[in-house]
């Protein structure tokens, strides 16, 4: 493709029936979603400030510092990241919406290359090779891989009917989805890799068999039971269940015995293979986190410290909280990583139950609004991408809040738009505003 052709695709001359500067975004952009986004980012900045606030540093001293001094404060860096996000939004809305479909595979391929480069050249940070250092700035490509994978998967699904397509094409879709998390796992960033499981919810909307979700849910249940229940008990229970199925339904014995035997063999392999996975694949700190999740009192002063202090902080907030900058757990740094992975406990301590329910309400409003936007798309590409956005935000929301209250293992997943960090904020901003850019042109799209 020539330089002029690429310019035409990106900036609308090839696809839009009129010059882009005549597009009235004030009418076409979804202002409800934009308002929710701005509210979440603003509230998130307040809580990042609270999480990094120190009474020993007077406010006037902060603003008397030079640029390098200001960049020592997390809240100021977050403010800078927000400013960059505003620029990203402007760029995303200027680019013609068809470019996201046209260049989906190119962006996906570029991100795969970037993940490979990161795996090779990144230096270990906290045991993970997942950060690229560009001077004073660090970027985490795994964060940006989510929106490129969503674009590529949506582009692929726009050309097929998932209900009717052959198993071969479903394998291609699985490959598109699984390649980035495999590279992320290789860099020892398991938490970010788990997020890609959320794509199954979008695929289910587009016709993926519910049997796949049931099988995966059953497999997850077997793995959890293998950690909680003695192996011989589980084997006995599954043997009894299989025997009852064969006795009560003779058709299975006559026509589906090989399938039943295969399922039984897979279940036994999972029961006895979980020990190998636990001891040889998981890192020691990941093993400890699972142990603490299953038994919260196992290591309260070690691996369990974060979750214990987080629950204390949230519980101490009561109904209305202790007040802005008045949280003792927050001010005295009882919870490590409080401005990133555990930002929700700052909300709970300083704003109380009312504050936490407000934050949860904002996330639910955003997720339902994104689903609403996805459903009104005229193209399969736009609808699928919208559901990918909703699924990714939903997964982050559930897992992050779950780990701060002890219902999920600590896997290092940020809370979208709230947690401190440029990579997280930028990736979710790009993810969301690509959808809004596509939605702004929905009346021009033809049904595909």
From TrEMBL:
Q: Which GO terms describe its cellular component?
A: cell division site; plasma membrane
UniProt keywords (A-Z) are: Cell membrane, Cell shape, Cell wall biogenesis/degradation, Glycosyltransferase, Membrane, Peptidoglycan synthesis, Transferase, Transmembrane, Transmembrane helix
The record's section on Pfam families has:
FTSW_RODA_SPOVE
Its subcellular locations are: Membrane
- Provide a GO biological process annotation: cell division
Q: Transmembrane residues, as ranges?
A: 34-55, 75-95, 102-126, 182-204, 211-229, 235-252, 259-278, 351-372, 384-411, 417-438
Topology in membrane: Multi-pass membrane protein
Supply one GO molecular-function term. Answer: lipid-linked peptidoglycan transporter activity
Q: Entry's InterPro entries? A: Cell_cycle_FtsW-rel_CS, FtsW/RodA, RodA/MrdB
Q: Which region is the signal sequence?
A: none
The chain's coiled-coil residues are none
Q: What is its main location?
A: membrane
- Xref: PANTHER family: CELL CYCLE PROTEIN, PEPTIDOGLYCAN GLYCOSYLTRANSFERASE MRDB
Q: Which NCBIfam families match?
A: rodA_shape, RodA_shape
UniProt-recorded name of the protein: Cell wall polymerase
Q: Which organism is it from?
A: Hymenobacter jeollabukensis
Q: Which gene encodes it?
A: rodA
């Amino acid at each position: 493709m020539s330089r002029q052709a690429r310019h035409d695709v990106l900036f609308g001359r090839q696809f839009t029936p009129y010059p882009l500067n005549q597009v009235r975004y004030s009418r076409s952009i979804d202002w409800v979603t934009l308002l929710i986004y701005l509210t979440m980012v603003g509230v998130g900045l307040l809580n990042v400030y609270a999480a990094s606030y120190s009474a020993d540093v007077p406010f006037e001293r902060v603003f008397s510092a030079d640029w390098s001094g200001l960049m020592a404060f997390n809240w100021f860096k977050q403010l800078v990241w927000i400013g960059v996000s505003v620029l990203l939004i402007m760029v995303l809305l200027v680019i013609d919406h068809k470019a996201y479909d046209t260049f989906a595979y190119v962006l996906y391929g570029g991100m795969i290359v970037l993940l490979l480069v990161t795996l090779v050249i990144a230096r270990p940070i906290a045991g993970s090779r997942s950060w690229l250092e560009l001077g004073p700035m660090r970027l985490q490509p795994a964060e940006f891989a989510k929106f490129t994978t969503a674009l590529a998967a949506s582009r692929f699904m726009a050309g097929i009917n998932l209900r009717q397509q052959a198993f071969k094409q479903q394998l291609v879709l699985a490959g598109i989805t699984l390649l980035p998390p495999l590279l992320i796992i290789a860099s020892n960033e398991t938490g970010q890799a788990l997020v890609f499981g959320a794509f199954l919810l979008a695929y289910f909307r587009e016709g993926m068999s519910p049997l796949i979700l049931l099988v995966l849910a059953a497999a997850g249940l077997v793995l959890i039971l293998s950690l909680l229940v003695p192996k011989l008990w589980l084997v006995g229970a599954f043997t009894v269940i299989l025997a009852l199925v064969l006795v009560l339904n003779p058709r299975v014995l006559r026509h589906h015995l090989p399938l039943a035997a295969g399922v039984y063999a897979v279940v036994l392999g999972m029961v006895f293979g979980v020990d190998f996975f636990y001891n040889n694949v998981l890192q020691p700190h990941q093993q400890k986190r699972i142990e603490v999740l299953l038994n919260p009192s196992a290591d309260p002063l070690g691996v369990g410290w974060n979750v214990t202090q987080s629950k204390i902080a949230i519980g101490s907030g009561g109904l209305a909280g202790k007040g802005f900058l008045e949280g003792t757990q927050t001010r005295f740094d009882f919870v490590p990583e409080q401005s990133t992975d555990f930002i929700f406990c700052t909300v709970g301590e300083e704003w109380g139950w009312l504050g936490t329910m407000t934050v949860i309400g904002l996330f639910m409003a955003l997720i339902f609004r994104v689903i609403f936007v996805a459903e009104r798309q005229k193209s399969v590409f736009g609808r699928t991408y919208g559901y990918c956005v909703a699924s990714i935000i939903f997964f982050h929301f559930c897992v992050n809040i779950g780990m701060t209250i002890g219902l999920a293992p600590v896997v290092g997943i940020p809370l979208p738009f709230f947690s401190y960090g440029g990579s997280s904020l930028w990736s979710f901003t790009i993810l969301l505003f690509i959808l809004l850019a596509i939605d702004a042109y929905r009346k021009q799209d033809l049904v595909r």
